[in-house]
Design brief:
Elements lengths: L2 E5 L4 E6 L4 H10 L7 E4 L5 H12 L3 E2 L8 E5 L7 E2 L1 H4 L9 H7 L2 E5 L12 H9 L3 E5 L2 E5 L9 E3 L5 H11 L5 E5 L5 H12 L3 E3 L5 E5 L8 E3 L4 H14 L1 E6 L7 H9 L3 E5 L2 E5 L9 E2 L11 H9 L4 E5 L8 H8 L3 E5 L2 E5 L8 E3 L3 H13 L3 E5 L2 H6 L3 H7 L3 E5 L2
Parallel strand pairs: 2-15, 3-14, 6-7, 10-11, 18-19, 22-23
Antiparallel strand pairs: 1-23, 1-24, 3-5, 4-5, 7-9, 8-9, 11-13, 12-13, 15-17, 16-17, 19-21, 20-21
The structure holds ligand EPZ.
Ligand EPZ binds next to helix 1, helix 5, helix 6 and helix 12.
Length: 422
Amino acid sequence: MDKLIVTGGFPLKGQVRISGAKNAALPLMAAAILAESPLKLTNLPALGDLLTMGRLLRFMGGQVELGRLNANEAELDLTGLARPEAPHELVKTMRASALVLGPLLARLGRAKVSLPGGCAIGVRPIDLHLKALQAMGAIFDLSGGDIVARAPEGGLQGAEIRFENVTVTGTENVMMAATLAQGRTVLANAAREPEVVDTGQALRAMGARLTGLGTDTIIIDGVSSLKGASYEVMPDRIEAGTLLAAVALAGGEITLLGFPHEALATVLAKLRATGLTLTPQGPDLVARAPATLMAADVITQPHPGFPTDMQAQFMAMMTAARGTSVITETIFENRFMHVGELRRLGANISLEGRTAVVRGVESLSGAPLTASDLRASASLVLASLAARGESQIHRVYHLDRGYEGLDRKLSSLGASIQRVKA
Ligand code: EPZ
């Protein structure tokens, strides 16, 4: 397993391009299952989770040239789909594999998907996905840890569905299933995340009929078939936010090329409150760090609120800010795995259930650290940029699942980061 060796104290400068959004690319790759001809995706990030999704689609009998993924594009041809199954060994490494369930039921009327277990940040069931698909007539049996799913004789039926809680991949899964269902499906309390909107826009390009994207009510009118299309994935707003947190902690001034301004509006407002100067320049953004960060409070919420995927990175910033920050995580029950590791750098954080109280310290000092989940590992890299001396971050495969060369991007901006191959 690779590790990163970071030496703190180097301000960032220069420019770097934002990669395509992981959490839009994953549902978009699953959407290829729905199409009667190849789906071409461009601006794909070359990162672990997409390689896993590519392996899963090939396991099913699809043609996915993974090699081209490093050229940030892929053509996905699932017309030869023969095996509508997502086995445990693939699903256990990536929960988002559940995104194939809705498309398989819509396209083939049957599926066998390993029930995703929990992961470091929480139990993360898919009960809301299953309840919604049942409302469309799907029948599920659980056998040997697999969900064995069947659509009714005449195919999935449109339905009026209200999600008890907002679920991002639940909304995407059911939205994809509804594109080929009989009649109209209304999704109430739908997720409004930009990645859900990106998925819906690609489905429209493939011939789907849907309205209400970006609102809490999405309406889909089923059609008889979808065709392939060519679609450019939106920029990754969480990578963009992570790089802003990096310059906040390391100091300096950077330009982010291809910045998703609208998708990060809430995060930008919060970062300005900590003292960052953020200046849009057309499609790009110039970010300059203040001499000292000011503490600010955060409560994570579904979009358009402050995204849970930025919570760990924001907490890293607050460990070195002046004052006290109260951070409340409302989406996942255990998304504070980074706290123990940040304390090893000298951070002063106390936990009360889903709330963390972060008292800024004068300085952090480097230490050996262990990553536990994707965004926690990002927060450890960020904090070590501001820590005196050397930090070593182990198990960086967590980072490589969700970022396209974050260490390379940071060292191109002047950070001292070295990847040591295991
Ligand atoms: C998506 O996960 C993202 N992943 C996550 O990003 C992100 O943190 C999350 O949305 C919230 O924004 C992808 O898009 C691939 P949810 P998802 O369903 O869809 C509970 C990252 O770092 N829930 O919106 O799995 C669930 O346990 C990843 O890139 C149920 O109880 O999240 C959680 O507490 C991490 N039953 C809450 O709802 C369900 O059926 C929100 O989950 C579904 C979810």
